[in-house]
Amino acid sequence: MDTIDPKKSFIKHRLYRHHASIHRNTYVKNISKLGRNLAKTIIIDNVWENFQLQSENGIFIKTWVGEENDRNLPDLAVLLKDFVTKKVSDVRKALRRFRDTLFRLFVNGDTNPYETVRKLLDTE
Predict the structure, then answer these.
(1) What predicted TM-score, i.e. pTM, was given to this entire model?
(2) Which terminus of the chain is more solvent-facing, meaning fewer CB atoms within 10 Å of its CB: N or C?
C-alpha cells in the first residue's frame, strides 16, 4: 500500500485483521462503523467474508501471500485511481457494474483483470 500510494492521496484509511469483528462465526470488516460516506468507500480483501456486511463496497482480490511477482494490488490501483479522477459519485454502482466482469476474468485466467475492467470504463 505504501508503494502504491506513498502520500495517501488516494487511499485515506486502511483496515486490517485487528479491525475486524466476529459476525456469524467469521471475521468481518464493518466499514459502516467508520462514519464515512459508503458511496466513497471501498474495501479490498482476499477473503470475501470480510466484506460481507457491505458487499457492494467490496473488491475481492486474489491472495498474494508468498508470490514475489504478484501485481494484483498495483494493477488494481490503476482502476481505483480512475474512480478518483473520474469522480465516480457512488463506487457501489460502479463496482456493481463490473463485479461480474471481474469474476469472469479471474475465472478465465485473465492476467490483469483490473486493467481489462479499466479499459471497459474508458469506453463508457
Answers:
(1) 0.71
(2) C
Q: How many domains does the chain have?
A: 1
The Cα–Cα gap between 105 and 50 comes to 22
Tell me which DSSP letter residue 66 carries.
Answer: T
Q: Under 8 Å CB-to-CB from 103, ≥6 apart: which residues?
A: 60
The three cell numbers of residue 100 are 461480474
* Res 1: pLDDT: 72
Whether residue 97 is contained in a domain is answered as yes
Residue 75 structural domain: 17-123
Confidence of residue 123 (pLDDT cuts 50, 70, 90): low
In a domain, 26, yes or no: yes
Other beta carbons within 10 angstroms of residue 14's beta carbon come to 11
Helix (H, G, I), strand (E, B) or coil at 43: strand
